[in-house]
Design goal:
The complex is a heterodimer of chains A (about 180) and B (about 650).
Chain A (H helix, E strand, L loop, with lengths): L1 H18 L7 H7 L3 E2 L6 E2 L2 H5 L3 H4 L1 H13 L3 H4 L21 H10 L14 H14 L37
Antiparallel strand pairs in A: 1-2
Helix pairs in contact in A: 5-8, 7-8
Chain B lengths: L1 H8 L11 H12 L4 H7 L3 H30 L9 H35 L8 H23 L24 H29 L12 H33 L12 H35 L6 H14 L15 H13 L1 H17 L6 H23 L2 H7 L3 H31 L5 H27 L16 H31 L37 H4 L15 E5 L6 E6 L6 H15 L5 H18 L10
Helix pairs in contact in B: 4-5, 4-6, 4-17, 5-6, 5-7, 5-9, 6-7, 6-19, 7-8, 8-9, 8-10, 9-12, 9-15, 10-12, 13-15, 13-16, 15-16, 16-17, 19-20
Classes of the chains: A mainly alpha (about 180), B mainly alpha (about 650).
Chain lengths: ~180, ~650
């Protein structure tokens, strides 16, 4: 009985976190979210401490992922990466990453740009927006089951809705270089 | 002593004429009564117990929705208040509307009917009593799903009408809209079940002699309402199911790029949503038509016009849903048609008002609390009706659409038109249900506080709306100048809340220590007052025979039928038009299966928020529950 109560309490806590909507983060929080400590080659590194204090909201929260998806549209990511399959730029959903798949690497790619065409968005997006986009990009391939995912957009469909993942299972193409 | 004697006397096919009259009551109680304890609570199919439960649950939801309203008024009491953040505010106003419409207004009206209609038509139980039990459990669990979701920060936040695309997959992240949509499924199943029971009860179980022109007006109103429910609810269930499919498995019902249609949602929703207003209002019409003759001390004036007005309203209600969509850019001809039909519905409503006024003028009105609520209704509802005619006109509607003017309008119509008569009905039927009177002194205070509080709260909202204050905003800037009036509205809201607190206090107090009520404390004319207060489990020891529209006024001794069996649950089936006796029909006994069916259906519906596979695996326990429910009992067929 006690175990059940504990289980229910834990489940309800995850539910809270899953659905929470932080519409505008406090300025000190947003500043602290930028404190990534990258490795020397700017691939990988330590995420800002506050990320753990906040409970890694950009990974498992449906609202944040959905915001990331909207930013993916608004900031023209599709121009190079298409729906995630890649055109001019590399694919984001085939499991192959030039600069690492961890959140810090993707965040650095967004903020500072990468050689051969990836522009820097650090001056155009807020810190939490970049983390939202990071979370969405990491969810594109749907490698792992997640209880939080955005769903399809109201537009022509190029791929199954994200919440029908894992999309990776449906991918036949080998990693492209 | 009588128990053992009855066991010896009562053989199969014992009629009520075979046993001594003084033993008839105890024997019927043995057959119809509900066992005590938890088992009896879960298995009972007595319409009075279920109706009582339904009413209490709906009023608890009313109180909870009222608390949400107060929270909103606290947040809006001044510009730039930081009491509630915007996300929480969105959830709160959505919960308030959803809760009041789906968990209070419609269920409470059907609940009163579940209790009162079988008594009014003089039968022993509602038709399909097990479906009735199932309906209550579905309603309860549906309400819990919504409120538990809200407690877990998963409350819907898209308005009580959940327009796509805001509630659709692209903008409605998370499971919030799914919880809303699935709550719809729960409550609509419950409402449809009750509607079917009411139609059959009213058409086939009326006391002998209760021809169509002798049916009490409340029963007529519930018949029209039940048909409206049956025609309206499927639209919203189709809409909410399509929404869930869009969100969960990526269908494209509401995605224009893939051939879907966003406006389809609004059409489906309002094809249900506008009749819904009348599904709430028509039972109130019935309540008013029951209360006024009793306190005017004369039969209602214009029985036939009233019945025809009820039916006309029920039909016209399906022809004006588009007036909720005037600003979506419809063809001019369509707008004109729906403007005309929206204004036309004022005609039958006007007929009703004048019939009631005529009854009051020609009678000798006694101003007891139920009657005071009716007078409050007249005043408030007419204001709401007039602002309704105003917004029926397209140019005016375009100006005030989505402003507080509309908020004021529909609160005037719904609270003035339905909640005031309902509170009057509670004061009116409370002695019948509990056997105790409510306090006349407190009742007058309740009327005063609620009516004054209501008008001071909602009338200024008309002005705020005309000043341009939009609906659903969580705050506003000080320069807009809406602050003082909003503060006034919030303070007046406290008066209204005080009235409701006093009302609930009076209910609880009277239930414990109210003055005992006689069988017919108001000297009313309809059959529910012919039995004891509270009624026994079998309602009437002999089914009464009706010879006029006001049986308790016109007959000094109410004639009764003879020859029903007493060793099983049996009631009388009569013809649809003339209520001639047709057959003796068995009535189902207590059963646990409706409860299990509701639990398994709930597991299926709630799980299907998270995975489509729940529909497959969840169907298995539902199947077992239904097999248990419908397992053949090898009882003989009913005899004509």
């Amino acid at each position: 009985m006690i175990e059940r109560c504990v289980l229910f309490a834990v489940l309800s806590l995850t539910a809270c976190k899953r659905e929470m909507r932080d519409l505008r983060s406090d300025p000190p929080e947003a500043a602290a979210l930028d404190q990534v400590r990258p490795m020397e080659n700017r691939i990988g590194g330590a995420a800002p401490r506050i990320m753990y204090a906040l409970g890694q909201p950009y990974e498992g929260n449906a609202y944040q992922l959905n915001q990331g998806k909207r930013l993916y549209d608004w900031f023209g990511c599709k121009g190079c990466h298409a729906q995630g399959g890649g055109v001019i730029g590399p694919a984001l959903m085939d499991g192959w990453w030039r600069y690492g798949s961890d959140p810090v690497s993707i965040y650095l790619s967004l903020r500072d740009g990468r050689p051969n065409g990836m522009p820097a968005f650090g001056q155009r997006m807020t810190t939490d927006q970049m983390w939202q986009l990071t979370g969405y990009i990491r969810s594109l391939g749907s490698y792992r089951p997640s209880t939080a995912a955005p769903s399809r957009n109201d537009e022509m469909q190029a791929r199954p809705a994200e919440n029908r993942g894992p999309a990776a299972a449906a991918l036949i193409a080998r990693p492209s270089r | 002593m009588s128990g053992s004697y009855l066991e010896q006397v009562v053989q199969p096919d014992t009629r009520d004429t075979d046993i001594p009259p003084r033993l008839l009551g105890p024997q019927l109680e043995r057959i119809w009564g509900t066992p005590r304890g938890l088992w009896g609570f879960l298995t009972t199919v007595d319409h009075k117990r279920i109706g009582q439960r339904y009413i209490v649950t709906a009023f608890i939801f009313l109180a909870m929705g009222g608390v949400l309203a107060l929270l909103m008024r606290l947040q809006l009491s001044g510009p730039e208040r930081r009491f509630i953040d915007p996300d929480r505010y969105n959830q709160i106003f959505t919960m308030h509307g959803t809760n009041m419409m789906f968990l209070f207004a419609v269920p409470v009206m059907e609940a009163v009917a579940v209790y009162i209609v079988p008594l009014m038509v003089g039968t022993r139980n509602i038709a399909f009593p097990r479906l009735n039990a199932f309906s209550y459990w579905m309603f309860l669990i549906g309400g819990l799903v919504l409120w538990v979701g809200f407690a877990l920060d998963m409350g819907p936040d898209v308005g009580w009408f959940a327009y796509v695309p805001l509630s659709g997959p692209q903008y409605g992240a998370g499971k919030r809209s799914d919880i809303w949509a699935q709550m719809i499924t729960f409550t609509e199943i419950a409402a449809l079940a009750v509607a079917v029971e009411l139609v059959v009860t009213i058409l086939k179980q009326r006391a002998p002699g209760m021809t169509l022109d002798r049916i009490p007006l409340f029963v007529w109103a519930m018949l029209v309402t039940a048909f409206a429910v049956i025609c309206a609810m499927p639209a919203i269930m189709i809409a909410s199911t399509s929404l869930i499919l869009d969100r969960l498995v990526g269908t494209h019902f509401f995605n224009p790029s893939e051939g879907g249609d966003v406006l389809l949602w609004q059409h489906l929703f309002w094809f249900f949503g506008h009749p819904e207003v009348y599904i709430i209002f028509l039972p109130a019409v019935g309540m008013i038509s029951s209360i006024i003759p009793t306190f005017a001390r004369r039969p209602i004036v214009g029985y036939l016009p009233l019945v025809l007005a009820l039916i006309a309203t029920g039909i016209l209600a399906f022809g004006l849903w588009v007036h909720h969509m005037f600003v979506t850019g419809l063809p001019r001809l369509g707008e004109s048609f729906f403007t005309a039909s929206s204004m036309a519905i004022a005609v039958p409503n006007g007929i009703q008002i004048f019939c009631w006024l005529a009854t009051l003028v020609l009678g000798r009105p006694v101003l007891k609390t139920p009657m005071l609520f009716i007078l409050a209704f007249f005043f408030t509802f007419v204001i709401g009706g007039l602002s309704g005619v105003m917004v029926a006109s397209v140019p005016f509607d375009t100006q005030v659409h989505d402003t507080y003017f509309v908020v004021a309008h529909f609160h005037y119509v719904l609270i003035g038109g339905a909640v005031f008569p309902l509170m009057g009905a509670v004061y009116y039927w409370f002695p019948k249900i509990t056997g105790r009177m409510m306090s006349e002194r407190i009742g007058r205070w309740v009327v005063g506080l609620v009516v004054v509080g209501f008008n001071l709260t909602f009338f200024p909202m008309h002005i705020l709306g005309l000043q341009g204050m939009p609906r659903r905003i969580y705050t506003y800037q000080p320069e807009l100048g809406w602050g003082p009036l909003n503060l006034f509205v919030s303070l007046s809201g406290c008066i209204l809340a005080a009235g409701f607190v006093l009302f609930f206090f009076d209910v609880v107090r009277s239930m414990r220590s109210g003055a005992p009520a006689s069988d017919n404390p108001w000297q009313a004319a309809t059959l529910e007052w012919a039995t004891s207060s509270p009624p026994p489990s079998y309602n009437f020891s002999r089914i009464p025979v009706v010879t006029s529209a006001n049986p308790l006024w016109d007959a000094t001794i109410l004639p009764a039928t003879r020859g029903l069996r007493v060793e099983r649950r049996e009631l009388l089936v009569t013809t649809v038009v003339d209520a001639e006796p047709q057959a003796r029909e068995s009535s189902p006994s207590d059963s646990i299966w409706p409860f299990w069916a509701a639990v398994t259906t709930s597991v299926l519906l709630v799980s299907s928020i998270f995975t489509p596979w729940a529909v497959v695996w969840g169907a298995i326990p539902v199947t077992f529950a239904l097999i248990g429910w419908f397992w053949p009992k090898s009882t003989p067929e009913d005899l004509a």
